[in-house]
Design goal:
about 450 residues; OB fold (Dihydrolipoamide Acetyltransferase, E2P); Rossmann fold; 5-stranded mixed barrel; 5-stranded parallel beta sheet; 13 helices; nuclease; exonuclease
Length: about 450
């Protein structure tokens, strides 16, 4: 009887199947219903036979299932499996017909929760990148020759031992200060933030924040936003060395420099003492060579100056000869100057005799006597002319003076501003005026304007 016939007759009375037939139909049924699924649970009973296959169980608090991961899939697993590890396994549900065991044939394994953590990682990375916390312009250069370095990590972890070993080998003169902090678990992120704040105020030349490798869940404190912002807020240059070379954390993006391992971070900050010694020796050789070249040039310059230098006695002789020449020239110049001055003195004496002051004084005395005689006559004549002009001007002024008109019996009316009244139309009844006479003034008032009438006021 074939398998299809057996499936069709399962409902008949007293259908009898062999054990192998039953297991075969159960396996086929399970594989058809569960072609490929994900199962999450705790890994236990891990076995690694020489065949390369992996056998283990996945369990939770109420049940478990046997699992098998064959060699071709086991070789591609990147996760280090161990009992107690919380994982998520992908595979198909099947049945091992030989024993009738229900099992999961696994082709891929990843840490439990890694997918959710990966999404949170990507979301935070995108957020901080949009804020500009990853910009290269914010990265500070590492000090070339640090003397004091702070290390933020677990005081008992492998990372701190690797860092100390590198510094002892390459630069034992650098002072290392361990700022301890948890690097895994719920308390790790707040402790890392406090350690960063403390170290940033510690006067270090640079900081290293580090831990060894692990799963994404183990490294998650270094992907927390509060830790990333604390790293970005540090004023001290900082190197992030979290996990192995393939591990990447948010701290790596925010820090000034990312190191693939803790040892690599130590090498970045620890100048090789042997390399420094070789550099100093090279600089010493260059300095000696430069000094030799400088001395050679100075020696050549000295020889050139020595050849140009003349004996002081020879120079004194030349100066003495030059002094004699100048003395002779001075004597000739003085004699010539004396002759010229004597000639000029004789010329001036002749001119002085022709223009003697006594002769000039006689001429001036005669002019003074003549002027003394002319002055009284000119003054009398000038006074007579000025008096005559004054009399003529007085007569002319008297003719046109208003006082002369007043003397003939006329008067002048003045308003309160002292302005002459020229027309009756400019006055008003009751207006007070002054009448200016030849020998005084009268206060008058306008009675009416038609006819014009004035009345004398007391």
């Amino acid at each position: 009887m074939n398998d299809d016939a057996l499936f069709k007759q399962l409902g008949a009375e007293r259908d009898v199947l062999s054990v192998s037939q039953l297991n075969a139909r159960a396996r086929q049924l399970l594989e058809d219903v569960f072609p490929r699924i994900w199962v999450e649970g705790e890994l236990s009973n891990l076995a690694r036979p020489s065949s390369g296959h992996l056998y283990f169980s996945l369990k939770d608090d109420r049940a478990q299932i046997r699992c098998a991961c064959f060699r071709q899939h086991a070789a591609r697993l990147k996760l280090a499996l161990k009992d107690g590890l919380q994982v998520r396994a992908r595979g198909r549900v099947s049945l091992y017909e030989g024993r009738g065991d229900y099992q999961l044939i696994v082709d891929s394994i990843e840490p439990a929760g890694d997918g959710a953590l990966r999404q949170a990682f990507d979301a935070l990375k995108a957020k901080l990148m949009a804020e500009g916390l990853f910009e290269q312009t914010l990265k500070r250069p590492l000090p070339a020759h640090p003397t004091r370095i702070g290390v933020i990590t677990s005081a008992s972890g492998a990372a701190v031992r690797d860092i100390i070993s590198v510094f002892q080998r390459r630069a034992p003169f650098i002072e290392l200060v361990i700022v301890p902090s948890a690097v895994q678990g719920r308390e790790a992120a707040p402790q890392l933030v406090r350690a960063l704040e403390l170290a940033d105020r510690g006067g270090f030349d640079a900081l290293i924040i580090s831990r060894g490798g692990g799963s994404l869940e183990d490294l998650w404190p270094f992907n927390e936003e509060i830790v990333a912002r604390a790293v970005a807020g540090c004023q001290t240059p900082i190197i992030s060395a979290v996990g192995h070379e393939t591990d990447v954390s948010i701290c790596d993006f925010v820090a000034d420099v990312r190191a693939p391992t803790p040892s690599a971070a130590a090498e970045l900050l620890s100048p090789d003492s042997q390399a420094l010694l070789r550099q100093v020796e090279q600089l010493e050789r260059r300095l000696v060579q430069r000094l030799r070249e400088r001395l050679a040039r100075a020696r050549l310059q000295l020889d050139s100056l020595r050849q140009r230098l003349r004996h002081p006695g020879e120079r004194l002789s030349q100066q003495a000869q030059r002094l004699d020449e100048l003395e002779l020239r001075l004597q000739r110049a003085l004699a010539q100057q004396l002759t010229q001055q004597q000639q000029r003195l004789g010329h001036l004496r002749t001119r002085l005799q022709t223009q003697h002051p006594g002769r000039r004084l006689g001429q001036l005395r005669e002019q003074l006597q003549q002027l003394d005689l002319r002055l009284p006559r000119a003054m009398q004549q000038q006074l007579k002319q000025q008096r005559k002009q004054l009399e003529q001007a007085a007569q002319t002024l008297h003719l046109v003076s208003p006082l002369a008109t007043l003397g003939r019996g006329y008067s002048i009316l003045l308003d309160d501003q002292g302005t002459p009244v020229r027309s009756a139309a400019t006055t008003q009844p009751g207006q007070r005026l002054k009448a200016r006479l030849h020998d005084g003034e009268l206060n008058v008032r306008v009675e009416n304007d038609a006819p014009y009438t004035l009345s004398l006021l007391d």
